[in-house]
Structures are given as structure tokens and as C-alpha cells.
Amino acid sequence: MIRSACKRIGLSALNAVSKQIKSGCPSAAAAGLRPYSETGPRPHTSLYPVVSEGTWLEKNNYAQFDGWELRQLINFVAADDGVPEPEIIIEVLKGCRNNNDYALATRFLEVVRLKGGNKMSETWPYIMQEIGPTMQELGISTLKEMGYEEPELWLENVDDM
Fold first, then answer.
1. In terms of DSSP H, where are the helices of the chain?
2. What digits encode the pLDDT tens for the residues 85-94?
3. b/e string for 18-43 if b means 16 or more Cβ within 10 A?
4. For residue range 60-75, what is the model confidence (pLDDT) as tens digits?
5. What are the extents of the domains in the chain?
6. What is the spatial distance between Cα 110 and Cα 127, in angstroms, rounded to a whole number?
7. What DSSP designation does 39 have?
8. What's the pTM value of the predicted model, to 2 decimals?
9. What class is the 53-151 domain?
10. Closest CA to 112 of 88, 94, 147, 133
């Protein structure tokens, strides 16, 4: 029953599109009913294509971003392969402070820490050395001060017992 209802809805939508095309307004009609299977994969587009370079940092002020833009930036940084520069981390923390979102700042620091991977013992102390004064200025506690360096319910690996 649902299948037949969906088929009828699809046919009526296609009829409406064909009527609009015949009336001389093809772009408005066809744009709304394009099947996803025929569009192919979306190309990789980014809101922040040069976030790792200083040029984007100079052109934009992360501290003035609203919550949505800040989360988009953090998602982009999290999806990137490398560890972000300390300057970018500082600006994101300032943005979190301006948006009064302490939890987002904490989660961002956790993401940055985990992005170090196997070299976490080398990268994290350097990053903390660089962003430490800014964190003190903004009133943001470090992960170690909050007890987030190690998960709360962390259990020993059974293979190592």
C-alpha cells in the first residue's frame, strides 16, 4: 500500500513538472525534483578551504562566528588529517568563549588531543605550551585539570591482563 502511494505521489509530481516545463518554466520545476541517484557523488567542497594556511586566519575572525559557523569549522578541523596550528586552536577557543560554549571548547580540545594519534605524547605538550596562556586568559581549564586526559570508565585491555 505504501509502495503504491509513493508511486502515485511520484507520478503526480512528474506530471506537475512536465506541465511547468511545457508552460516555459523548466528550471524551477526540474530543480526541485532531481533524483539523487543520477547526480553522482558530490565533489568535496569546504567552507574553509585554506584553514591550515595563515591567509584564511587573517581574512576571518573566528571569535566573531556564531555557534553554527563555529561547529562547522570544528567539524572541518576534525575531518582534516593533520593537527591544527596553535593559532587556529586559539581563535576557535576565543570563538567558543564569545559564544559562551564551554562544553564545545572542551570537546574541541579533546579532538585536538586525539588528532595527535601515535605522536600524542609529542604534539600535545607543544600545543598546550602554545595555547596555555590563552586558556588561562579565557578561563578555560585544561583537560588534565578537568580529569579528561583518561576516560572516566576506562578499563584495562583484556589482552594485556
1. 2-23, 26-32, 54-59, 67-79, 86-98, 102-114, 120-138, 143-146
2. 898 899 889 9
3. eebeeeeeeeebeeeeeeeeeeeeee
4. 566 677 888 888 888 8
5. 53-151
6. 12
7. T
8. 0.60
9. mainly alpha
10. 88
